[in-house]
Input
Amino acid sequence: MLEKLELHRRDFDSRIGNVTTPDQLKQLRTDFLGKKGCVSLALKELREFSPGEKRALGKHINDLKEHIELLIQEKSAVVQESSDRAAGSDAFDLSLPGRREMDGHLHPITQVMEELIAIFVGLGFSVEEGPEIESDYYNFEALNIPKDHPARDMQDTFYVEDEVVLRTHTSPVQIRVMEKRKPPLRFIAPGRVYRCDSDVSHTPQFHQVEGLMVDRSVSFGHLKGIMDIFLHQVFGKQTALRFRPSFFPFTCPSAEVDIQCVICLGKGCRVCKQTGWVEILGAGMVDPAVFGFVGYDPEEWTGLAFGLGIERIAMLKYGINDIRLFFENDLRFLRQF
Ligand code: FA5
Output
């Protein structure tokens, strides 16, 4: 037995010298300390010896076991370190091009929104905000759109509750600001709005910028002048505009402003529905009935108002023919801006 134990020790000492990987070390541990390893087998063989011999041989077996455990423990640290180093050197190949940090940037709609805000701030407008979940009163009633009026059909509405809607336009901010402040006023209100609408030029959630200016003697001429400056700054001096008579319950007279389609340059395409023109905003002179809701005297004050769709402007600016691309979050699309 003593000879056998000595052979196991020598065998172990020579094999551990050749171990270089964690797997090899694991196998060595199994061969010597596992259930069927030589230390366990030697312990089983003890049964055949007398009690006195058992005691003496048992001590030798335990010495061998401690020797094996100690060397395996020391080797384990060495093998692990070199395996970590090897993994590190594989992962870091100096000949490969470096990985670039990806720069994030603003969404194209945010970029256009900021550009539009800067233009209006340059024209002396301040910036206001209002809630996206809005009462029926601010979204419709106070804008001269009573319940059951056919004008409510102009905007397919998401109702939260009977008297609560997701705002269908930014116009309710007009009322909220006029309620709080006395004229003269000149502000814009950018923000998200919602309508039950979806096709190549309509999405259920989109962005508008509302504008309101109230003062003594504000005229339709001021409205035309502001729209002219604004749209030429966005699309360039050469872009043709036209004002078309229209209807909004909260403005009178009302107009829609079209720009010549910048995608087909007026020749006719899918985006302009072959007309050569694209509607870009609604506008008009504040209806005196609206002033009635906020306690302004229509004999003293006049106002101009406008509301434009930011996605529509972004589509024309960048030549995009499907508005839904803005909201699909496809990085191949977004990275171009
Ligand atoms: C309005 O929302 C009025 N509140 C605008 C207004 C304000 C008129 C102040 C007068 C005075 P309209 O429904 O036409 O108007 O929408 C204005 C613009 O929003 C449109 O010209 C269009 O550019 C954009 N728009 C409307 N619906 C959608 C939609 N579903 N998806 C994307 N853009 C839309």
Observations:
- Residues 2-91 form one domain.
- The CA atoms of residues 119 and 233 lie 8 Å apart.
